[in-house]
Every structure is written in structure tokens, then in C-alpha cells.
Design a protein that fits this description.
Elements lengths: L3 E7 L4 H6 L7 H9 L4 E4 L9 H10 L5 E5 L16 H4 L14 H14 L1 H5 L3 E7 L15 H7 L4 E4 L9 H12 L2 E7 L21 E5 L4 H6 L3 H5 L5 H15 L4 E6 L6 H12 L17
Parallel strand pairs: 1-2, 1-8, 2-3, 3-4, 4-5, 5-6, 6-7, 7-8
């Protein structure tokens, strides 16, 4: 039997969602429950910038129905992005070392402690059976020859037995003979390789369409839009990832997803084209295309369905 396909968006609280998707004037505290009537999963984006408050996480559990899934993006420091001291939990700030420019150095002790802080914060999701996968979205600066996948092994071990999905953002990881080595490493370490729908182009930061299942219980697919110029030059999330997917494009993506579902018991599909209502509109149309129930109709003609 084909695996279950779970669809959502990368965040539920982007400014564009609030401006163009949620009913006008909806209180912030009601948005997640409204979102969860229309999707079965969401990617937590706020955890990329700071470890969430455990009590806040507990409230998220209460606001979502049984069976709802949270995929959690790991902190930017863990994914080798630049991070400042104020992005760390207060208890870690005095222990961390920084560069002359104030960027935190990713040392083994800080990596382990930050991982433990995050896992403790999201424990209510795990206890409620609502934790899907942890997403490690590496910076394009994490690249072959300069870096190695082996550097990630302490983090993989710290997260286990929870599921980890790895999104690489330097195409060198999937070119020529490196592709087989990358996929073999993911399979050996039980890491789900993140597949993407990305803009056309051969820039090193644009990942090609590589569809691979590296753990039996999970395939992970992120949808970034197809605006090459915006992706490479945009200063904001809206500029980089804005894209209105047409039905033919969604059908093309669906074909790739069905192929993954033939090998994995579950496929998480997260729309990251986060400009205005581009992501939730496309994700809801995608659910309808798959034959899934896209949830109750929106208010005031929101959500483009055609």
C-alpha cells in the first residue's frame, strides 16, 4: 500500500498568512486551531530563531486535534547558520563563545546543550504523539570539501530515536559521485533526505530535483516556489519564496510525491512558498488534488481554489 501523505505549510503565522489568509481580525490565539481544521501538519519555523517556551508548546498541543503533526525546525546554530547570543536560551549565553563580530561558535558542548534545551521544550508534542520530525536545514555554506556529513553525527545521536530530516542547500552534495555518498550516509544514520521543489537554475544554492527515501517510515518534501530571480536576490522570505503554483505544476509535484509514497510509510509535504497566501492556498489545492478533504471553506472568499 502507498504511504500516507501529510500536507501542511512551513509556519502558520507568517505575516502574509495573517494579512491575506486568516479571517480579518482573528485573534492570534485562534489561528492555529483554524489552521488545523484545514491541514494535518505544520512546520514549526519559530524554533529556527529561538527555543520555544515549553508552556507555549503545551498550549499548541491543546489547540490541535488528535493526529495533528508538528515538524520542528532546529535552531539556526545547529544548522550551521550565523547566530547571535540573544538567540540562545538565557542559561546558555554565558557558556557560549563568540567571534569578534558577536557570532556564536558552534562548539560540541553548546551543540549538545542547545539540542537538550530544544528537546525539553518540545517534549509536550512528543508526549502527545504530535511530534513528526526534526528538520535540520543547513546553510549553503555547509558544503562538500569544506564540511563533511560526519560533522553532523553528534547531533544525529543526540536527537535519536526521534526522526531527523536533513535539508542540504548546496547542490554539491547531490552532484556526480557525491550523490550516492550523501544518500548512503543518510540511510546509514537513519536520516530522512529532504527532497525539494525549487526554482530552475544551476546556482550552487539551488538544489536539483532529487527524490530519495532514506528511511522507510518517512520521506520529507519541501516546496520553495519557482522564482529563480527572487530566490537568489530576495531580501525577505516573501521575495525569495513567493510563487503561485498552477494546477499543472501541482500535478507535477503530486507525481513526485506519489513516487515517494511507494517507498515510505509516510510523506510529509510542506509548502514554503510563504508570500501572502501563496502557501496555504497552494497546499489546500494540493490536498484536493490528492483527493484529501481540504477542510471547511474559508471566510470572505479566502484561499484560492482555482
Amino acid at each position: 500500500m502507498a504511504g500516507r501523505i501529510v500536507v501542511g505549510t512551513s509556519s502558520w503565522a507568517d505575516p502574509g498568512f495573517i494579512k491575506d489568509w486568516y479571517p480579518p481580525g482573528m485573534p492570534a490565539g485562534e489561528r492555529l486551531a483554524w489552521y488545523a481544521q484545514r491541514f494535518e501538519a505544520v512546520e514549526l519555523n519559530a524554533s529556527f530563531y529561538a527555543v520555544p517556551d515549553r508552556e507555549t508548546v503545551r498550549r499548541w498541543v491543546e489547540k490541535t486535534p488528535e493526529g495533528f503533526t508538528f515538524d520542528v525546525k532546529l535552531h539556526r546554530l545547529l544548522s550551521r547558520h550565523s547566530a547571535t547570543l540573544d538567540s540562545l536560551p538565557p542559561a546558555l549565553r554565558e557558556r557560549a563563545k563568540t567571534t569578534p563580530r558577536g557570532r556564536v561558535l558552534l562548539e560540541p558542548e553548546i551543540e549538545q546543550a542547545l539540542t537538550e534545551e530544544l528537546l525539553y521544550a518540545i517534549e509536550p508534542l512528543e508526549q502527545a504523539g504530535k511530534l513528526g520530525a526534526l528538520l535540520l536545514q543547513c546553510t549553503p555554506g555547509f558544503k562538500p570539501k569544506k564540511s563533511s556529513l560526519e560533522e553532523l553525527e553528534p547531533l544525529v545521536s543526540a536527537i535519536a530515536p526521534r526522526r531527523l530530516a536533513l535539508e542540504l542547500r548546496h547542490r554539491g552534495w547531490v552532484e556526480d559521485e557525491q550523490l550516492s555518498e550523501t544518500l548512503a550516509w543518510c540511510s546509514e544514520h537513519g536520516v530522512a533526505f529532504v527532497c525539494v521543489d525549487a526554482p530552475p537554475g544551476d546556482h550552487f544554492s539551488i538544489m536539483p530535483a532529487v527524490d530519495a527515501v532514506t528511511r522507510d517510515d518517512l520521506a520529507y518534501f519541501r516546496i520553495h516556489g519557482r522564482d529563480t530571480h527572487g530566490y537568489l536576490t530576495g531580501k525577505s522570505v516573501a521575495e525569495r519564496f513567493g510563487w503561485v503554483y498552477g494546477d499543472e505544476e501541482l500535478e507535477e509535484v503530486a507525481g513526485r510525491i506519489h513516487t515517494l509514497a511507494e517507498e515510505a510509510r509516510e510523506v510529509h509535504v510542506l509548502f514554503n512558498n510563504n508570500r501572502d497566501d501563496d502557501a496555504p492556498s497552494a497546499a489546500r489545492r494540493f490536498r484536493a488534488l490528492l483527493g484529501q478533504d481540504p477542510g471547511p471553506p474559508p471566510d470572505d472568499g479566502q484561499l484560492r481554489l482555482s
